[in-house]
Amino acid sequence: KKSEQELKDEEMELFTKYYMEWKGGRKSGNTSYTNIPRFYYRLPAEDEILLQKLREESRAVFLQRKSRELLDNEELQNLWFLLDKHQTSPMTGEEAMINYENFLKVGEKAGPKCKQFFTAKIFAKLLHDDPYGRIAIMQFFNYVMRKG
């Protein structure tokens, strides 16, 4: 006959065995969680000077890269000039309009920073109820200024 302690030990041993089998079986069945990249990193503490400096430098480099992607005043003026030059008649009231064909021509001439704005998706987003299938130049320019 087994003592109460021996029964508890045996029960714990069986529990551990079955738990590890269950956990191991589940783990081998779905390993997609091992492919998920880490997205949270804790902020460095005050005494971790090297980590703080690394964080500051990383942030500065990131902001510099993002600011280089922004259109400067000269590039915006050039874009406005190209849009105005390629407007499609007839005008709707006071508003200058542009069709898709001219929109693509402006996109080719505007430069690499502007390329991201000259897509069919953006044109369709700004297209409303013009009978000639055009968008308002001012509306597109404001879109570029907000997003760029």
TrEMBL record:
Which keywords are on file for this protein? Cytoplasm
> Cellular component GO terms, alphabetically?
centrosome; cytoplasm; spindle
Q: Does the keyword Cytoplasm apply?
A: yes
Do you know which InterPro entries this protein is assigned to? PPP2R3C (IPR039865)
Biological process (GO) annotations held by this record are: B cell homeostasis; cortical cytoskeleton organization; microtubule cytoskeleton organization; positive regulation of B cell differentiation; regulation of dephosphorylation; T cell homeostasis
Recorded coiled-coil stretches = none
Cytoplasm: is it a keyword of this entry? Answer: yes
List locations, semicolon-separated: Cytoplasm
User: What is the designated name of this protein?
Assistant: P2R3C phosphatase
Q: Which organism is it from?
A: Chordeiles acutipennis
